[in-house]
Design brief:
It is a single chain. This protein has 400 residues and is mainly α. The protein has two domains: 15-193, no CATH class; 202-387. Helix content is 73%, strand content 0%. The protein has helices at residues 15-18, 22-44, 48-74, 80-98, 108-130, 135-160, 163-182, 202-229, 235-256, 259-269, 273-283, 285-304, 315-337, 345-358, 366-387. Helix 3 (48-74) packs parallel to helix 7. The relative contact order is 0.10.
């Protein structure tokens, strides 16, 4: 295989070389659109099947993004070939995102082809870039390419099928991709890789994932603002707008007040950053992003129908309004447990309160439930901030 003569790897050893580059931030803009497509898709198909399909597409979108973030942790986006690779991926990602609303309809093959192109094409670029310069990662990406090529068969076959057959094939494809890191990408003749071999810059990966959380929260604000702008402004809609905005701010506080900085410090100082990068950022952030997306749909429902049906909320709407924050607290709680002895008590109490709130759906309106979830998220954020800091002044490196 032809390889790059010039070393395209990121220099290690100082903060400037580890920073997130403008090229990476520009690449992320495609995923603002992807998240919008996912939330609108779920809103348009509020059924069990719609939720499963949206969840599968969200896992695919996240997998494309997080794999690219690992790549740019090793490769230097300031070098022209790497930057060009990101721009090519952006074009494919824009096409993939555009096909999301009809991925389980007329544009299934288009979604599958663009997804496979991004996954396999990026790995082939990595093999070309590191063959002469990083033998360990060259072997790792040989294994990764094999796994992604196998899953590609299921993606393309699903794109050529329809209905339940497509769903089954794509479920198998995503299962293969998500299973591969957990088993070290084992391939006959190539063996398996270990997390100790995945030498990454932990602070860079932490900053990238924190940026994606900001993207998801930003999309939630866009949905809220766009919906509110088209409505008549009166007491109920203003209250629903306030609940949506307050909930978004509280979600920001739950992630960024303590957890993000502490986790970034922990992975940056860890002797095994690859393992933390895999468990804390590659896997657990799926729940965090999923919770934000579902919460964005909940905000739009509460804004559009604050009274619900005859002054109460149907079960499906309750699941969306209460489920989004619950998924988010579950994800952030497990993420924070990586750097603390226990699952945060504040998050456990928050989950319990959300469960109790959900039981009131028969008598509560969507606005009541949305306001309740916002209050619970604010309580969790303040509780954690007060308990994990010295009177709210500084976050510790450990604790809960």
């Amino acid at each position: 295989m032809i390889s790059a003569r010039r070393n395209l790897l990121r220099p290690r050893g100082d903060h400037d070389h580890a920073r997130v580059t403008y090229s990476e931030l520009f690449f992320d803009l495609v995923f603002v659109f992807a998240i919008t497509q996912l939330s609108h898709g779920l809103l348009a198909h509020l059924t069990l099947l719609g939720a499963i399909e949206t969840g599968l597409l969200m896992m695919a979108v996240w997998w494309v993004w997080i794999y690219t973030s690992w790549i740019t942790n090793w490769l230097d986006p300031e070098q022209r070939p790497v930057r060009l690779m990101l721009f090519v991926l952006m074009a494919a990602g824009l096409a993939m995102s555009s096909s999301i609303p009809k991925a389980f309809g007329a544009r299934g093959l288009e979604f599958a082809v663009t997804f496979v192109f991004m996954q396999v094409g990026r790995c082939l670029f990595m093999l070309w870039a590191v063959k002469r310069h990083d033998h360990r990662n060259y072997r790792n990406f040989q294994r990764i390419t094999v796994w992604l090529s196998v899953s590609a068969i299921f993606w393309i076959a699903g794109g050529l099928s329809d209905g339940w057959q497509r769903l089954a094939l794509w479920t198998a494809a995503i299962a293969i991709e998500y299973l591969s890191p957990a088993v070290g990408m084992w391939v006959p003749g190539l063996g398996r890789s270990t997390p100790q071999e995945w030498k990454i810059d932990g602070a860079h990966l932490a900053e990238r994932c924190a940026g994606f959380v900001i993207i998801a929260l930003g999309e939630s604000l866009v949905v809220t603002g766009a919906t509110f702008a088209d409505m008549e402004w009166h007491g109920l809609t203003i209250a629903a707008f306030g609940a949506a905005f307050g909930g978004c701010v509280a979600m920001w506080a739950v992630y960024f007040n303590v957890g993000a900085e502490r986790a970034s410090h922990h992975i940056a100082q860890s002797s095994d950053p690859g393992r933390l990068g895999r468990s804390g950022y590659t896997y657990l952030h799926i729940l965090i992003i999923g919770g934000i997306i579902v919460s964005a749909v909940a905000d739009e429902l509460a804004l559009a129908h604050p009274h619900g049906h005859d002054g109460h909320t149907d079960f499906k709407t309750m699941l969306i309004i209460v489920g989004g924050p619950a998924i988010y607290l579950l994800g952030t709680g497990w993420f924070k447990k990586l750097t603390a002895p226990y699952f945060p008590l504040s998050h456990l109490i928050g989950l319990g309160l959300l469960g109790l709130l959900g039981c009131t759906y028969g008598i509560a309106t969507p606005l009541h439930l949305a306001s309740g979830t916002t209050v619970i998220l604010i309580v969790v954020a303040i509780w954690e901030w007060a308990s994990l800091t010295d009177r709210g002044r500084r976050p510790p490196e450990h604790g809960r």
